[in-house]
Structure of Neelaredoxin:
Amino acid sequence: MSGIGERIQQADWKKEKHAPVIHCPDAVVAGQAFEIKVNIGEEIAHPNTTEHHISYITVFFHPEGEKFTYQVGHFEFSGHGEAVAGPNQGPVYTEPSVVAMMKLSKPGTLHAVSFCNIHGLWESEKEIKIAA
Amino acid sequence: MSGIGERIQQADWKKEKHAPVIHCPDAVVAGQAFEIKVNIGEEIAHPNTTEHHISYITVFFHPEGEKFTYQVGHFEFSGHGEAVAGPNQGPVYTEPSVVAMMKLSKPGTLHAVSFCNIHGLWESEKEIKIAA
Amino acid sequence: MSGIGERIQQADWKKEKHAPVIHCPDAVVAGQAFEIKVNIGEEIAHPNTTEHHISYITVFFHPEGEKFTYQVGHFEFSGHGEAVAGPNQGPVYTEPSVVAMMKLSKPGTLHAVSFCNIHGLWESEKEIKIAA
Amino acid sequence: MSGIGERIQQADWKKEKHAPVIHCPDAVVAGQAFEIKVNIGEEIAHPNTTEHHISYITVFFHPEGEKFTYQVGHFEFSGHGEAVAGPNQGPVYTEPSVVAMMKLSKPGTLHAVSFCNIHGLWESEKEIKIAA
Ligand SMILES: [Fe+3]
Ligand SMILES: [Fe+3]
Ligand SMILES: [Fe+3]
Ligand SMILES: [Fe+3]
């Protein structure tokens, strides 16, 4: 079995508009809330139309040296100009960017997975340490 | 039919920890991206444990004078200390707060609905104008 | 505050293609798994195109005489013919129908809420008893 | 970058209770609706408690020989006995099983990914042909 992992695309976000960018501290204090921002198209904007858009970003955390991965959040961007009058005539567009707030008690890796409705799954990751 | 609307609770967020608080400008420029922050427990913190937590916030927009409501986003907070070692032993907690980015071309009302896994559905709303 | 409840539309599913139809037993045995099917467009089919489709159905349960409502499930239909080649050229369509499996230990009301990306929120409900 | 793919676990569902089982025809008629059932714990039941449960199943489709993957659906199981009275005292349990209805116009691979709140991500896949 090859697995869905082979279908999750990776790329340098400075060159590829689908790659999620994870913004958070390199090290955090255990049990203290911190902000994580994940966005798509930071260098090259991704389209946001009824026919082509980023549907969601899911964030996971894998603690260093452990077996199982946790989910941090699943963030859906629902407005893409849909309307009774026709595509891209509607009053609402939601941009592919989210800021969440989280706490960690162990070091590990944050994984962000995004889904473009026509260009599929993309991912990026960032290590995070626990400050001494 | 009474409807689910009767089950969506409303309260003053300064007195009730479940009521979502919507932070956004009172007026925005048509087609220009702006931030919306929605959080729970701004005045009185809500618990965040494996057994009791805020599962998600969904944001809707109803254009003034129109018939249909649009969805802006659905934001799930997935980490609540779950772990193989037992409840509240896990390394990840996601706080019930989200910042999204959106564009509007019409005035209307933003609605935020949140769900506590044991205290059910809660809502709040905020009018938003289009700046001249 | 008027509330999102006023924006959740109700209609007879035999005449209105958006109204969800809830199929489940009228009475179930406490703690015994049973199937619930919820679908849209049972009598009059709803379109399923890139520009116009049912995005999801959420199911809630309110125990008779209690204060808080529980969520049973949230079921998203993601395929609507989207493709790089253009709208409605893609290989996947997901129909607005779901069968889930659940257990209850109290009587109450099942609520189904569906969202059409251009015609907004719709709901229906069905009482369910616990068999003696 | 190692990628989230390395964290998505694979196993024989006859021996491992987390592995999703995909039930659908081996071949379908192009453009004709068919049922797909995905469930967890078909041979060995998975726990369903407030502290330990299957949160969701997401289904993807990758058309044979193509570059991008599509999402079919995302199905969340929300009831796990949560209650004000304490964990596992609530009236609702949602079992990790879903039946959806879909159409395909190309052959390819269906991927199911499930998430256990303490044992992480699991996947399985099934090839599907277009009947002549
Ligand atoms: Fe794209
Ligand atoms: Fe609560
Ligand atoms: Fe519609
Ligand atoms: Fe498990």
Observations:
- The CA atoms of residues 60 and 109 of chain D lie 8 Å apart.
- The beta strands of chain D are 9-10, 20-23, 27-28, 34-40, 54-63, 70-77, 92-104, 108-116, 120-130.
- The mean pLDDT of chain D is 97.
- Residues 4-130 of chain D form a domain with the Immunoglobulin-like fold (CATH 2.60.40.730).
